[in-house]
Fold:
Amino acid sequence: MQVLVRDNNIEQAIRVLKKKMQREGLFREMKARSAFEKPSEKKAREKADAIRRARKLARKKAQREGLLPAPKKKPIVSRQG
Structure:
């Protein structure tokens, strides 16, 4: 992972790095590896993840078929600076 520092602006570079790490799921993985997870907890978590993925897939399919309204798109705000 690489972040460019512009004009010696370390604060902005750290914000960008944190956002990239969040998107990659690095914080979630670090938390999971920091402590032992019991097999029963792991099984419950994986089952919940599978249910979440299945619901998301069904929601996307329903939106494509026109059964559900598409999500509202956020307006693009351009920052100048």
